[in-house]
Design brief:
307 residues; alpha/beta; TIM Barrel; 8-stranded parallel β-barrel; two-stranded parallel sheet; 10 helices; 18% strand; globular
Length: 307
């Protein structure tokens, strides 16, 4: 175990819809407020998506993104990790645009293509707050979240150009090999930061055995890396706790899981951050501050962003 571990708060994402939780932040102000209280609860990093403030639909609107990140930065020094996953169906250009424009310290980088399936949740809901929700979730039955080697090469060039550190999202074992290839091909330099994303249908399932396998495989294929773990759904806290035990970092937040405990919805991202911070401290691990996270991840610094 490490003495310091980075806690990331994934504030709103593009998976959950407004019908699923009354606590899901939608407007730029709500998203920024959630990031700030997550920081106050112990998060060193916030992962940010933009949504239509009227309907809550994920959107590639760089102006909304700017409103969110400038508000966060004006109130605290948390590391802002901008998504390049965006929302389902967005083009590569739409997804990478915030990195090009705003040059963040950190941004997500999806390390391969998967069947990103959300449609199985539809039968759980009889009514929807907005018309787009059911259609948005339903289209994933015939959807491939495409991240080709060509697009990943282009992403690497943008990240290198802006000095933005990629957070490589690893949804399955083959993506570890993809990252190793990008290092060997000279697209990106080690040490890299990778995040094992577990529990998305189409990717690897969350289990203790699978996490140990992924870390061991990354050690063999990549060697020089820092890692974090995020988990979709009910296994979030158990598997994130395992990450802490084996020297990793963690991500929690309403993007990944809407609950705090069995049957009890999280009312904020901060509640989840406070819970994993308490668990970490019980294990003798102190949550890293934003500046400590910057040193751990070799980030360029908050003074070199373009927002």
């Amino acid at each position: 175990m490490k003495e310091k571990s980075i806690i990331t708060a994934a504030i709103t994402g593009s998976i959950h819809t407004p019908t699923m939780s009354d606590y899901l932040p939608i407007t730029p102000q709500q998203i920024a407020d959630e990031a700030v209280i997550a920081y106050e609860a112990g998060a060193a990093v916030c992962h940010v998506h933009a949504r239509n403030p009227e309907t809550g639909m994920p959107v590639p609107d760089v102006n909304i993104m700017k409103e969110i990140i400038t508000e966060i930065k004006s109130r605290c020094n948390i590391v802002i990790c901008i998504t390049t996953g965006g929302g389902l169906g967005m083009t590569t250009e739409q997804r990478v645009a915030p990195v090009t424009l705003y040059k963040p310290e950190l941004a997500s980088f999806n390390a391969g293509s998967i069947n990103f399936a959300l449609f199985p949740v539809i039968p759980r809901y009889k009514e929807w707050k907005f018309e787009w929700e059911k259609q948005y979730l339903g289209m994933t039955e015939d959807f491939i979240f495409a991240n080709t080697f060509k697009s990943m090469k282009e992403y690497c060039a943008k990240f290198n150009e802006t000095g933005t550190k990629p957070e490589f999202e690893i949804y399955d074992a083959g993506m570890v090999n993809n990252v190793a290839f990008m290092i060997q091909a000279g697209y990106i330099k080690a040490p890299v930061y990778i995040q094992f994303v577990m529990g998305v249908m189409g990717g690897i399932t969350p289990s203790s055995e699978n996490l140990l396998f992924l870390v061991d495989y990354a050690n063999k294929m990549i060697g020089d890396f820092e890692f974090s773990v995020c988990v979709a759904g009910r296994a979030q806290f158990p598997i994130c706790t395992q990450s802490l035990l084996i020297g990793g970092n963690v991500r929690v937040g309403l993007e990944d899981n809407l609950y705090l405990d069995k049957g009890r919805m999280a009312k904020s991202n901060a509640e989840q951050v406070a819970k994993i911070a308490r668990i970490a401290r019980e294990l003798g691990i102190e949550p890293a501050t934003p500046d400590e996270a910057r040193k751990i991840l070799h980030l360029k610094g908050i003074n070199k962003v373009n927002f």
